Amino acid sequence: MNPLRLTTPSSTVATSWQDRLYTLATRLAAVVQRVATPSVVFEPSATPASATYADPTKTTVDPSSDAALGALLARNSASTHTGNIFAGLGQALLGRFATEGANFTSDVSGSSGADSAISLGIRTASGATVNLSLNATENGLSVNLHTDRTLSDTEKQAVAGLARAFEDAVGGLGKQPPTLALDGLLAADPSVLTSVDLNASVATAPGIHESIALHAGSDSRSLKVDGPAGSVALNLDMSQPATWGNRTQRDASVANTLGQIDAAALRGHADASLVALFKDGFSQLNSHYPPTPATATTRGSIRDLASSDHALLTGLADFSASLSQATSAPNPMRGSELDTFNYDVSQSSTISGRNASDRHITQQQASHLKASFHASPWSDTPLNLTNKLGSQNYLYTQIDDSAHASTNIAYARGELLSASISHDASHDTHVQKYMVGQLVDDTDTPSHQAATRDLLPLLTELARHRTTNDPSSLATLHGYTQLKASPAPIAG
Predict the structure, then answer these.
(1) For residue 255, what pLDDT band results from cuts at 50, 70 and 90?
(2) Best label site of 61, 151, 268, 394, fewest CB within 10 Å?
C-alpha cells in the first residue's frame, strides 16, 4: 500500500497531500520513540562475542569508554567487599590505549569503607610517561589516567598490553593477606617501555597498611614490601647480561635460593606469610629476563663467555635480598629477650681483562641469618609466658649463621688457566633453658666447614672428550656453583 494514499473509515473523501504527509510523519515518530535506548554494561571477566556472529539488534559498548568506566566506578564504589573496590578498573583504563589512549579522571562518592591506593607509572623509550592512580577512601572512589604526550601506535599497544598484568597485580593486592602477582608487569618489552613502577598501600586491618613498591627498568629491578609482619627488600642489577645463564640454569639457582630461605625460616622460626612474600618476590623478579643484547657477547671481547664459563656461574643477575621480621618481646618477665628474624643473601659478579683470551671472571655469593625465639621445653606443651613464675619454663635460642661461595675462572692467551669454587659456612646456636624462671642450662654450639674444589682437571677432561657443551656435563658443573648455607653439605 502506498503510505501517502491514506483513507479513514469515517469518510470516503480523500485528504489533501499535505494532510497525508503529516499523518505519515506522526506514525514514523511514534515508531522511533518505541526503540529502547541501549544501556552500558561492563563485565571485565566476560569474553567478547565474535563480531561475525554478533547480534545486530544489540549495541556493542567499548568497556574502556567514558560511559562504561562511569558505570563500573558506580558499581565498585557501592560494593561492600573492599577487596573488589578496584576490580576491572585498571584493565579498562589501560585498555583505552588500544584505541585513542585518552586521559580519564573521575570521582565517585561511596561508602565501601575501603582504604587503599594503587598507582602505576610507565615510561616509554621516547620519553613519554603514563601515570594511572586508583584511590579508595571511606568517602568514595577516584581514578586518574594521564599521559604527558601523544604515544606512537607501538607505545599505545605496549601500554594496553599491560592491562591484564596490572589487573592481576591489583587482584593479588586486594586479597587478605595481599599476595604478589607481578610476572606480567615484569614481562614488559624494555625496547618500548623502559620502566614500569607499581606503588600500593593496601589496608590489611583497620588502620594497618601494607605497602608495596615495584620498579622494573632496563638496568635494575627492585621490590620493597613493608607491613605489620616485617619487611622484604629485593634488588636486581640488570646491567651485566653477559653473566646471565639460560632459563634452566636460572630456575635451578632460584630453586636453590628458595630452599635456603626455607631452611633458614625453619631454623629461625620465621613468620610464614613474610617468607612466602620473599619467595614470591624473588621468583617473580627473576622471571622474564629481557633478551641478552648482542653487544654483551661480542666475539673477542672479555664478555664473550664460553658455555663452561656460564655453567660455573649461577646464571642469575646480581642481586641483594633481605627479610626482616617485626621484633616482639613475648616474655613479660624478661623484656630484653626478643623474638627476631633477619636474613639476607646476595650475589656479585665481575668480568675483567684485556680481551676474551685474557679474561678473569669472579662471582661471590653470601648469606647471613640472625634470629632469636622462645620455645617450650616440651613438645606436647605449648608455650604460655605470663607474669606468673610458674609459666617461666622455656628455651630461648639465638642463632647466628653465615655462608659464602666464590667462583674464580681465569684465561691466559686463550687457554683456561684456572677454575675453582670455594665454599664456607658456619652455624652458631646459643640455647638457654629456664625452669620456673631460673637458668638451668646455657649451651653454645658453633660449627664451621670450608672447602675448595679445583675444577680445572674436570674441565680439561671434558674438553678432551669434547663434552664441554654436553647438557648433562654442564648441569653437573652448575651444581657446584650453588651456595651451601649449612656446614654439613660442605663437610660431605
Answers:
(1) very high
(2) 61
Closest CA to 459 of 418, 422, 405, 406: 418
* From 21-30, 205-214, 282-291, 321-330, the region with the lowest mean pLDDT: 21-30
| pLDDT band, residue 492 (cuts 50/70/90) | low
Q: Beta strand 394-412 with 438-454: parallel, antiparallel or unpaired? A: unpaired
Helix axes 471-479, 247-268, angle to 10 degrees: 30
> What is the pairing mode between strands 208-217 and 193-205?
antiparallel
Dist. CA 178–CA 211, nearest whole Å? 10
Contact between 240 and 363 under an 8 Å Cβ cutoff? The reply is no
Judge whether 180 and 280 are in contact, CB under 8 Å.
Answer: yes
3-state secondary structure of 214: strand
Q: Give the number of other CB atoms < 10 A from CB of residue 264.
A: 25
Q: Which residue spans within 376-454 are E strands per DSSP?
A: 394-412, 415-435, 438-454
Residue 51's pLDDT band, with cuts at 50, 70 and 90, is: very low
* Three cell numbers written together for 118: 594503587
84: cell is 573488589
Instruction: With beta carbons less than 8 A apart as the criterion, state whether 368 and 323 touch.
Output: no
CA angle 126, 189, 237 (to 5 degrees): 95
| Other C-beta atoms lying within 10 Å of the C-beta of residue 8 | 10
Which stretch of DSSP H or E encloses residue 255? helix 247-268
The helix/strand/coil state of 114 is: coil
Confidence class for position 294, pLDDT limits 50, 70, 90: low
> Per residue in 68-105, pLDDT tens?
888 888 888 887 676 778 999 999 999 998 876 678 99
What is the amino acid identity at position 396? Y
Long-range contacts of 304-310 (CB under 8 A, 24+ apart): 304/356, 305/242, 305/243, 305/351, 305/361, 306/468, 307/468, 307/469, 307/474, 308/416, 308/419, 308/459, 308/462, 308/468, 308/474, 308/477, 309/361, 309/409, 310/243, 310/245, 310/246, 310/249, 310/474
123, 186, 282, 418 from 194: Cα distances, Å: 6, 11, 21, 39
Please provide the distance, in angstroms rounded to a whole number, between the alpha carbons at the two ends of the chain. 102
Between CA 211 and CA 194 the distance in angstroms is: 24
The 3-state DSSP class for residue 297 equals helix
Q: What is residue 340's three-state secondary structure? A: strand
Which of 95, 87, 99, 88 is closest to 64 using CA atoms?
95
**What integer pLDDT is reported at residue 293 of this predicted model?**
61
User: What are the residue ranges spanned by the domains of the chain?
Assistant: 60-217, 219-492
